[in-house]
Amino acid sequence: DQYTSEIQAFTAAKAEELEAFRIKFLGTKGIIKDLFEQFKTVSTEEKRSFGKVLNQFKQLAETRYNELKENFDAKPAAQQAGQDLTLPGDGFEVGSRHPLSLVRNEIIDIFKRLGFVVAEGPEIEDDWHNFSALNFPEEHPARDMQDTFFIRKGEGGDDIALRTHTSSVQVRMMENGKPPFRAIMPGRVYRNEAISARAHCFFHQIEGLYVDENVSFSDLKQTLYHFVQELYGEGTQVRFRPSYFPFTEPSAEMDISCTICKGAGCNMCKYSGWVEILGCGMVDPNVLENCGIDSKKYTGFAFGMGMERIANLKYVIRDLRLFSENDVRFLKQFQSEI
Ligand code: PHE
């Protein structure tokens, strides 16, 4: 009786359980086999009733086993192994691109459509490529404009430093090729500054260079104007202010109209309505000559921008340190971007 109810109640979640059931009741050393052994010793009077119960019992076990087995064989393997396919799946974390990568990719895309290629160079630079070729006079305070991390202070222009800008890549490109050049140079640069919300000892730049015959300042303006329309949206205004860089003449800084709050007070522009985004100018003929390019035949423009600044203005990020802290709460916010 006890076995009967056990058999009736039995269900198997896993194939192994069903097999265990088979062994227990129907196996060669199973309960039923055992009962048949006992049957031999039962007195003749009792044999009839005992035999009847025994046969019924055997049938019950077999039927239950076959039922369950059929049921089981019809199920997918995962379910046979006892997994419940109706349970919700485990969630998994999807990564996201770093905002600086997003911005870099977007800028590269825009300039690629204008025929610019991407060029890269070393982060550890010599004095020539970072300064001298770019028309920084020796011992000139302009070298201090960009607080440099020197790796080796050498004799007479023998210094090795972490590059302070990616303009060094422009020099390498011009030295190693022939005009026309049309390239942008993304990369990390280093400056010896105390880390705060507004400054860091490293950041990322994208510089651009276009050298060919008859390249003019109006080409520079139109190119950068187009770039800004693509990046910040149609109708973004630009203005150029005169500036100074040793390697460009004339030089300018470009501001864009603040597109974030449209003047309503996000304070990214300190309520002026304008934010500076890049430096630019016509490549100084001295720089062209330093790189072996005929400055009578060729002219060019160059520009350089900090990617962090571009990202700040796109995503309203107010603290530079966020870019390098790897705080997932910050990084997660860019999941929806491509
Ligand atoms: N190299 C300059 C800087 O780091 C930016 C710049 C590049 C300005 C090209 C003009 C032309 O500040």
TrEMBL record:
<dbReference type="GO" id="GO:0004826">
    <property type="term" value="F:phenylalanine-tRNA ligase activity"/>
</dbReference>
<dbReference type="InterPro" id="IPR002319">
    <property type="entry name" value="Phenylalanyl-tRNA_Synthase"/>
</dbReference>
<keyword id="KW-0436">Ligase</keyword>
<keyword id="KW-0067">ATP-binding</keyword>
<comment type="subunit">
    <text>Tetramer of two alpha and two beta subunits.</text>
</comment>
<feature type="domain" description="Aminoacyl-transfer RNA synthetases class-II family profile">
    <location>
        <begin position="103"/>
        <end position="313"/>
    </location>
</feature>
<dbReference type="GO" id="GO:0000049">
    <property type="term" value="F:tRNA binding"/>
</dbReference>
<dbReference type="InterPro" id="IPR004188">
    <property type="entry name" value="Phe-tRNA_ligase_II_N"/>
</dbReference>
<keyword id="KW-0648">Protein biosynthesis</keyword>
<keyword id="KW-0030">Aminoacyl-tRNA synthetase</keyword>
<keyword id="KW-0460">Magnesium</keyword>
<dbReference type="GO" id="GO:0005524">
    <property type="term" value="F:ATP binding"/>
</dbReference>
<keyword id="KW-0547">Nucleotide-binding</keyword>
<dbReference type="InterPro" id="IPR022911">
    <property type="entry name" value="Phe_tRNA_ligase_alpha1_bac"/>
</dbReference>
<dbReference type="GO" id="GO:0000287">
    <property type="term" value="F:magnesium ion binding"/>
</dbReference>
<feature type="binding site">
    <location>
        <position position="249"/>
    </location>
    <ligand>
        <name>Mg(2+)</name>
    </ligand>
</feature>
<keyword id="KW-0479">Metal-binding</keyword>
<dbReference type="GO" id="GO:0005737">
    <property type="term" value="C:cytoplasm"/>
</dbReference>
<protein>
    <recommendedName>
        <fullName>Phenylalanine--tRNA ligase alpha subunit</fullName>
        <ecNumber>6.1.1.20</ecNumber>
    </recommendedName>
</protein>
<dbReference type="InterPro" id="IPR004529">
    <property type="entry name" value="Phe-tRNA-synth_IIc_asu"/>
</dbReference>
<dbReference type="GO" id="GO:0006432">
    <property type="term" value="P:phenylalanyl-tRNA aminoacylation"/>
</dbReference>
<keyword id="KW-0963">Cytoplasm</keyword>
<dbReference type="Pfam" id="PF01409">
    <property type="entry name" value="tRNA-synt_2d"/>
</dbReference>
<comment type="similarity">
    <text>Belongs to the class-II aminoacyl-tRNA synthetase family. Phe-tRNA synthetase alpha subunit type 1 subfamily.</text>
</comment>
<dbReference type="Pfam" id="PF02912">
    <property type="entry name" value="Phe_tRNA-synt_N"/>
</dbReference>
<dbReference type="InterPro" id="IPR006195">
    <property type="entry name" value="aa-tRNA-synth_II"/>
</dbReference>
<dbReference type="InterPro" id="IPR010978">
    <property type="entry name" value="tRNA-bd_arm"/>
</dbReference>
<dbReference type="InterPro" id="IPR045864">
    <property type="entry name" value="aa-tRNA-synth_II/BPL/LPL"/>
</dbReference>
